[in-house]
């Protein structure tokens, strides 16, 4: 259930006067948000700085309390800014991001990076593949993606927040470390933000040791891949200049990866073929119409909301769907490509989502999956030499 921002504001005011037990008593009479939900709103810290030193100090204290090692990595993602998200715990004022200014020093970093990029011939095509960037494309279609800002006195307003988290190598600790307001994202801007965060974290000490950033994880957006490619030395690895050139790995997180693989097959404009066998959404539509699995129209006809669901993406790329395609109205020989694609995607998610322990055989299976996609990619390059046609594949 979603509550109006004014209801949240009133509940925060009520919680500050009644405390936990009094609030729960009123909640027994009125359909109000849970106490823990209101507690999260009231305890939200606010800062006008993208990287707040007080927040980093609290992170170090929490890491020391949990006895975490000073080794980990950063995760980042972009989100569309919405108004009425948080209520200030001190004043009760409704706080939103709708009038968030982009800091001038951040704009200068973007401009400097753009000048550096213009000196190099770039033919990388950075389309908007991430969910947040696609959702904002309609509202920012008139904005330039060059990273330059108009030479006017008024500051631009942000439309997105690029949020960074730090996670320990043990996997049981994570902490938000930076929130950058941006108008629109590309690889040059991402490079500025990522290395700025890595620099600050690498200079932070815990128990007389500097924190080591060994990896960076993000979604599968094309500008992230361009950034990886430009920052890459070999095999998606580069060297961290703020940590004695220790190798840093660039990774795509598997929940975004499975959603992107799902998007490829449900897109009716793509003409995918594997070994001269069609990989098409028509085979999925046949499964939807027979209603023998969990697959419904919301799985294949995506909206801005349903495309964000990892659960629905996993239900599309599943062995149950593969089995139901075999029992459908299409001849088996016509569905070989689709069934193989879905089986590979299902196996990939099953391996990456395994939290019970490390199975040595999983590494061999991952190598087979990588080889399968690599062979397919080389096949497309051979049969479709023109880059524009390969993009439509």
Description:
By secondary structure, the protein is of the alpha+beta class. It folds into two domains: 189 residues, no CATH class; 137 residues, no CATH class. The chain is 46% helix and 15% strand. The strands form four sheets. A six-stranded mixed beta sheet has the order 5-4-1-8-10-9. A two-stranded antiparallel sheet has the order 2-3. The protein has a two-stranded antiparallel ribbon with strand order 6-7. A hairpin with a 5-residue loop joins β9 and β10. α1 packs across α2. The protein is globular, with a radius of gyration of 24 Å. The two termini are 40 Å apart. About 9% of the residues have low confidence.
């Amino acid at each position: 259930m979603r509550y109006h921002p004014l209801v949240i504001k009133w509940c925060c005011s009520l919680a500050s006067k009644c405390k936990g037990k009094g609030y729960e008593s009123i909640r027994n009479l009125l359909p109000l948000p849970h106490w823990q939900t209101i507690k999260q709103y009231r305890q939200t810290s606010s800062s006008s700085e993208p990287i707040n030193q007080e927040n980093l100090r609290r992170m170090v204290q929490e890491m020391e309390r949990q006895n975490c090692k000073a080794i980990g990595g950063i995760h980042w993602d972009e989100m569309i800014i919405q108004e009425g998200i948080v209520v200030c715990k001190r004043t009760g004022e409704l706080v939103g991001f709708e009038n968030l200014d982009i800091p001038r020093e951040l704009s200068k970093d973007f401009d400097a990076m753009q000048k550096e990029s213009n000196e190099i011939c770039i033919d990388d095509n950075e389309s908007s593949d991430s969910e947040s960037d696609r959702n904002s494309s309609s509202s920012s279609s008139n904005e330039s993606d060059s990273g330059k800002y108009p030479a006017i006195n008024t500051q631009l307003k942000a439309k997105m927040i690029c949020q960074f988290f730090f996670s320990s190598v043990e996997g049981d600790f994570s902490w938000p470390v930076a929130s950058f307001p941006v108008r629109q994202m590309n690889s040059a801007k991402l490079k500025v933000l990522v290395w700025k965060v890595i620099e600050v974290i690498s200079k932070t000490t815990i128990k007389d040791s500097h924190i080591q950033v060994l990896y960076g994880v993000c979604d599968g957006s094309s500008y992230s891949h361009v950034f990886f490619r430009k920052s890459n030395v070999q095999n998606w690895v580069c060297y961290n200049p703020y940590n004695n050139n220790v190798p840093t790995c660039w990774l795509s997180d598997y929940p975004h990866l499975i959603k992107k693989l799902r998007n490829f097959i449900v897109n009716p404009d793509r003409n995918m073929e594997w070994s001269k066998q069609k990989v098409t959404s028509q085979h999925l539509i046949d499964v939807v119409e027979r209603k023998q699995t969990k697959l419904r129209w919301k799985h294949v006809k995506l909206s801005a909301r349903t495309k964000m669901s990892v659960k629905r993406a996993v239900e599309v790329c599943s062995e149950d769907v593969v089995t139901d395609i075999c029992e459908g109205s299409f001849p088996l020989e016509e569905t070989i490509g689709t069934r193989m694609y879905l089986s590979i995607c299902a196996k990939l998610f099953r391996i990456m989502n395994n939290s019970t322990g490390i199975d040595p055989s999983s590494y061999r299976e991952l190598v087979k999956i990588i080889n399968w996609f690599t062979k397919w990619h080389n096949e497309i390059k051979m049969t479709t030499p023109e880059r524009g046609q390969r993009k439509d594949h």
